[in-house]
Amino acid sequence: MNLNQVSLPVTDLERSAAFYRQLGFRQIVSSPPAYARFECPAGESTFSLHRVDHLDARQDAIIYFECEDVDALCRALTARGVTFEQAPADQPWLWREAYLRDPDGNSLCLYHAGRNRRFPPWRLPE
Questions:
Q1: Cα 25 to Cα 28: distance, rounded to the nearest angstrom
Q2: pLDDT band with cut points at 50, 70 and 90 for residue 5
Q3: Domains detected in the chain
Q4: 7-20, pLDDT tens digit by residue?
Q5: Residues 95, 113 contacting (CB under 8 angstroms)
Q6: Using CA atoms, how far apart are residues 59 and 124, in angstroms rounded to an integer?
Q7: List of residues 6+ apart from 37 with CB closer than 8 A
Q8: 97: left (phi over 0), alpha (psi -120 to 50) or beta
């Protein structure tokens, strides 16, 4: 199996679509007021937004977007007005991560893991 896409609930589709376009994602489907779909700038992954009337209290999910240079991307996005909750930082699990939220509070992580994404030193033997 391969992950096809993730769909996020949003209360204002156009506001959220504009936010993700600002981050550099390419919108490939526009079906207002209920749905939008995006391609990631690298690879073949997609994600979508679907409009809801209100967001329920729920456990927070985090969407991870991998990039080669987290620091450079964060600087470029900050220059475009994007606000980060956590600046890029090295993590004990050997990833470099930065965190932000979309307009509806969904958590996003921009990260670089390189080989450690699939093959960390503590990976179980096959």
A1: 9
A2: confident
A3: 5-117 (3.10.180.10)
A4: 899 999 999 999 99
A5: yes
A6: 28
A7: 5, 27, 28, 29, 46, 47, 48, 49
A8: beta
